[in-house]
Amino acid sequence: IQLTQSPSLLSASVGDRVTLSCKGSQNINNYLAWYQQKLGEAPKLLIYKTNSLQTGIPSRFSGSGSGTDYTLTISSLHSEDLATYYCYQYNNGWTFGGGTKLELK
Amino acid sequence: QVQLKESGPGLVQPSQTLSLTCTVAGFSLTSYNVHWVRQPPGKGLEWMGVIWNTGGTRYNSALKSRLSISKDTSKSQVFLKMNSLQTEDTATYYCARGPLLDYWGQGVMVTVSS
């Protein structure tokens, strides 16, 4: 399964509502996770099984979707959220999306 | 406290074999899978392979002919071996706990160069 993330680069301001997209080439059956990676750090799990928030992750992060189309939403952008975000499917094999880099406008 | 830590050479010559070790703590390799993921400089994440808690393995089809993952449960270590390295294998290599990749090592940067 291939994953396509859009946009590849997103400029936003602190306080904005931000939506990142991940589209699979086949049905992912909700086995979709989201990771945040800051420069020089390992990725961090944010969301698993489409919409389950990992322990310790702020509630401004949420996930949704079904079938082939999934979304990560940040309800109100904080400066510490500036990072690259990757989706990851574990329904049929294991695949990462190409990433969305979130930068400050 | 769950921890994973990768170790291995920082520099490998072209055509040689890369050997990395992931040492884990805070969980048992008999209960959890361990995945390997790599990231070339400035690029995205690439899933490489997994070793199940049972010892079975699955590999990225693009790497399958060159890649081997094994483990020593008694030492809480997982091993990655990849042969015929080329410059495009230059990357940071991570191990992570499956199935959700909820814990990651810090990564080890491997440069393939003569």
Properties at a glance:
heterodimer; A: 105 residues; mainly beta; seven-stranded mixed sheet; four-stranded antiparallel sheet; 0% helix; B: 114 residues
Account of the 3D structure:
The complex is a heterodimer of chains A (105) and B (114). Chain A is built from no helices and eleven strands. Chain A is mainly beta and 105 residues long. The radius of gyration of chain A is 13 Å and the shape is globular. The termini of chain A are far apart. The relative contact order of chain A is 0.35. Chain B has 114 residues and is an all-beta fold. In chain B, the strands form two sheets. Chain B has a six-stranded mixed β-sheet with strand order 2-10-9-4-5-6, with no helix packed on it. A four-stranded antiparallel β-sheet of chain B has the order 1-3-8-7, with no helix packed on it. Chain B is globular. Classes of the chains: A mainly beta (105), B mainly beta (114). At the A-B interface, strand 4, strand 5 and strand 10 of A face strand 5 of B.
